[in-house]
TrEMBL record:
Domain of life where this protein originates: Bacteria
PROSITE patterns: GNAT
CDD domains: NAT_SF
Keywords annotated in UniProt: Transferase
Listed InterPro entries: Acyl_CoA_acyltransferase, GNAT_dom
One matching Pfam family: Acetyltransf_1
Record-given protein name: GNAT family N-acetyltransferase
Species in which this protein is naturally found: Pedobacter endophyticus
Keyword 4Fe-4S tagged: no
Record GO terms (molecular function): acyltransferase activity, transferring groups other than amino-acyl groups
Coiled-coil positions: none
Residues annotated as domain N-acetyltransferase: 1-159
Length: 169
């Protein structure tokens, strides 16, 4: 197992992982991610913000990072965090708690960059995801209503209830 930046050649696999995640979200009655354009994913890859866990040449888990998230975190966003977005697991690898590997990686990555927090969010009142993230060390800060979602992906515009999680380093 290794964790590394995604390559442009991974973009079709990432799209397939997002498709599988959307299918699971529909099945479980969760907030459903929009279809992300390939150009959007490739832009994140070029910026070094798409990451993957690779096992035997296959992407087992994928996520994106950013260092600014004002529309979600508001005044708490003080250039002191690594934010994790769109964390998803390959259906063939589900149940292996890759969240624990991502958290360890994110803590080390954030420390290297001089950050104080690792943060993430999820939409709606998804008790299973709340349990999943808190079991991996995140503190659940509560559910907050987003007020300005105009430049966020579509699922943020459809669901204003946002669960915030942070890990203080």
């Amino acid at each position: 197992m290794k964790i590394e930046n995604c390559l442009l050649s991974d973009s079709d696999q990432i799209i397939a992982l997002y498709d599988a995640a959307r299918k699971l979200q529909v099945e479980r009655g969760m907030v459903v991610w929009p279809v992300f354009e390939k150009s959007f994913i490739e832009s994140e890859i070029r910026e070094g913000r798409q990451w993957k866990i690779v096992i035997d040449g296959t992407i087992a888990c994928n996520w994106a990072t950013t260092f600014e998230d004002k529309q979600i975190w508001g005044d708490k966003d003080n250039n002191d965090s690594v934010f994790i977005h769109r964390l998803c697991t390959n259906p063939n690898f589900r149940g292996n708690r890759y969240i624990d590997k991502v958290v360890e990686w994110a803590k080390n990555y954030a420390r290297q960059l001089g950050k104080q927090y690792v943060r993430l969010d999820t939409l709606g009142n998804n008790t299973k995801l709340i349990e999943h993230y808190t079991s991996s060390g995140f503190e659940f800060l509560g559910i907050f209503k987003l007020t300005d979602t105009s430049t966020l992906p579509g699922h943020y515009q459809r669901e204003p209830n946002c669960c915030l999680f942070e890990l203080k380093l």
